[in-house]
Batch of 2 targets.
Target 1
Amino acid sequence: MAVQRALLVCLAATAVVFQLAMAADHTVGAPSGSWDTSTDLQTWAGSQSFSVGDNLIFLYTSNHDVLEVTEANYDSCSTGSPTATHTGGNTVVALSAPGKRYFICGTAGHCQQGMKIEVDTKASAGSTPDVPSAESPGSSPPPPPASSNGVSLKTCLTVGFGLMLMMLFAL
Ligand SMILES: [Cu+2]
């Protein structure tokens, strides 16, 4: 019936909002290190699980920078033709798509000393791109639901969040 369907749509919309709010920030090298030559950055990167929607945060001093490079230039520590260059000590890279990305420091010798990370971003846990869906192919959240029923999105999210809390307590 219509009310149940509206509740389900509200729950789904809330789940999307909740998932966006859950996006994680990964500060490179943290908590014990940073984007520098003394941190074991490969071990750090291997300890992380990166998901679409997460952010990669580089904090570094002025003798470093952040170059995004191709896999070949990552392997060879070639700083000549980066696909992106970041400076300034506080660089936030949005991991907006699944796949591998490669970052090295452009200061002479630093990549060879280990200032390089490979980041393998997975599709976010809640998204199942292969499942046929009535929604549009884009990654846009569901349309504001139930407006025809006179229910606002805010009410919908409130109800959806309440339902999620009830489900949590029921476990
Ligand atoms: Cu460096």
Note: Residues 64, 105, 107, 110, 115 surround copper (II) ion (CB under 6 Å).
Target 2
Amino acid sequence: MAAKRSFHQVAKQVATRTLLLSDGKVIPAIAWGNGTGGLAKGGDRAVLGGQLALEAGIRHLDTAQSYHTEAETTAAIGATGLKRSDVFVTDKISRNTFKGKERTRENVRESVINSLDKLGSKPDLLLIHDIRVPDQGKIPEFWRYLEEMVEDGTLGGVSLGFSNFRPQDIEAVMSVARIKPVVNQVEFHPYVYAHLEPLMELQARHGITMAAFGPLTPILRHPTGGPLKPVLERIGAAHGLDPASVLLLWTVQKGVVAVTSSKSEGNLRKIGAINTLPDLSLEEITAIDEAGKKIHFRFYKDHMTKDFAAPDLPEDV
Ligand SMILES: NC(=O)c1ccc[n+]([C@@H]2O[C@H](COP(=O)([O-])OP(=O)(O)OC[C@H]3O[C@@H](n4cnc5c(N)ncnc54)[C@H](OP(=O)(O)O)[C@@H]3O)[C@@H](O)[C@H]2O)c1
């Protein structure tokens, strides 16, 4: 699917902030996702968005079965003239592909093979989208099915991980894992930092890198902006950056992959620029930590606080 846009050649080599996963793979720390902003139905808009993101210097695309954008993710790479190997692709196995079917070994395999067909290649990283993708209480079995596909070559070279997993869900995987998970993608920003610190500690013990979706929630979705607003503005003003760029820098400096999105060329340029901006100072990072921990505000509510209690903090001060 080719987007209707003439496009100049995208530089193959760009400076990219990266993190090292525990299996030795290098992951670009700034990712562009096509699961939000009206892109999740796929089509030309998702291809064009991906092209623009790559043009802006982003080298990590985030898709999922439920976004219906797997083919568009690959098409976006093709449309830029970049090679598939120039870009890191994260994909997710979502609930919708099972349509009420049990998650048997055969059905999980079929779902994954459908994704490989749509992508036209293997993703670099494949995540279980959330804890309801496996049948209830069957996270270990589901993990084993994925491991078997890595071991038989179907998913050879693909790193495995999950998304929206709480400590107890991670322990369920670790109780059986022959292939260690490398990433947990969760809603992550300063307003959930106090809640997620124990999760980060557990993940650090198991070598699991955090990836942040919704990293711009404090400025986009909190009703007032909360206590971070003046802090982000002050730090931004000191560096000539907008609050979004400050938040994204904070995220990657925490050792977390920032999975953001945009359809605006101007914002995409700012997101791509994170790759080459100087770090925030330790004082600035600490000021953001402290302002963030004054409240607890989560946008994607779902199950993350079920049996993993959120801190007793207000939603605003
Ligand atoms: N695993 C999961 O369960 C899960 C859940 C949700 C999302 N995700 C993934 O994470 C991706 C990002 O999620 P998200 O949309 O919640 O991320 P986000 O980073 O919190 O928000 C993205 C929004 O930020 C805006 N933006 C970007 N740069 C900006 C700037 N400089 N100033 C002001 N606004 C700016 C964009 O709007 P403009 O278009 O106007 O720039 C875009 O709509 C999704 O597409 C998806 O791939 C995963």
Note: Residues 1-8 have pLDDT under 50 and may be disordered.
